[in-house]
Amino acid sequence: MKKLALCFAISLSITGCATTKISPEDRNKLNQTQTLLKATDVALIADGCLVRSELGTSLIEGEQSRLTAQKFAELLSSQLNEQGVKVNNKLMPFVCGFMPEAQVKKYDYRLDNETKRAEITNYPLMNMENKSLSEQQQQALLNLNQSFNKQAALALKNVKEKKPVSNLLELSDQDVLVIKDLTQSNYAFIASVTGTDASFGKKFAAGALSVGVSLATVGAGAGLATVYIPQEGQQYIVHIVDLNAKEVMWSKGGMLMGKPYSKKNHSVEAKEILNPLFEVVSK
């Protein structure tokens, strides 16, 4: 039920939820999307956000977040290549780039495993491996990430009011031009990997958290921003965006496996990320 609710909340295409049967009409749309993606190069923009949930101020782990985004991007790129889709540009500009500023600043931040945790005073949290990005490029990419929050909040509102859910993103024409020039692509895969590792004290106080999805909100009214993070464990969400149309073409969410919090044996596993966009035939 929680996975299904997540699919609704972030406005996933019904063809992206494993809990939903795909109609012939939706299968045809997916096939058309396949053909479109194979005919052009695509960009891949990934973001990682791994949190240690503690009794006091919780902590964003910078190094694990960056590594997880990087390895997930490599996994997704490999699976795209297997399907005949060429990735011409991979970017990982931020840590927790999907979180609104007010929410990010509620955490402490540890840049890497060798530094001490510190209060967050600057936003966004930059991935230092992307130092070459200009301020304009950084802002356009941040606006792209944040546009999903606005779309998710509107989707929730429309679902409650039984209104159609729009897949359009709130992006300026200037942002689109900057992103297209940076990525040299009209289509982009936007990936977000999030996770929470609850401390023993936090688990004990909470009566042991159940694996699921929690809803974090910042703001009120029309300015409501929404971010979905697992209460415990890790998840991924992948969107395909048509930059010219400012539209989400397809989305999928799933559980992320491996050891993303490990300092010595970091690993990321996710199978069949592109299923059912690209059908996986059981062997």
Your description of this structure?
With 283 residues, the chain is an alpha+beta fold. 33% of the residues lie in helices and 28% in strands. Helix 5 (135-160) crosses helix 6 (173-183). Residues 1-15 and 200-226 have low confidence and may be disordered.
Bin the strand percentage: 25-35%
- Tell me the total number of β-strands: 14
Q: Give the C-alpha Rg.
A: 18 Å
Amino-to-carboxy terminus distance: 29 Å
Low-confidence stretches: 1-15, 200-226
Count of helix runs: 7
Query: Roughly what is the average pLDDT, rounded to an integer?
Result: 83
Outline the biggest β-sheet.
Answer: 8 strands, mixed
Based on CA inertia axes, which overall geometry fits? globular
> What structural category characterises the helix and strand content?
alpha+beta
Quaternary structure of the protein: single chain
Order of helices and strands: HHEEHEEHEEEHHEHEEEEEE
Helix content: 25-40%
Topology at a glance:
Layout: H1 2-9, H2 24-38, E1 42-53, E2 59-61, H3 62-82, E3 87-91, E4 94-95, H4 101-104, E5 108-110, E6 118-119, E7 125-126, H5 135-160, H6 173-183, E8 187-198, H7 200-206, E9 213-218, E10 225-230, E11 233-242, E12 247-255, E13 257-259, E14 267-269
Helix pairs in contact: 5-6
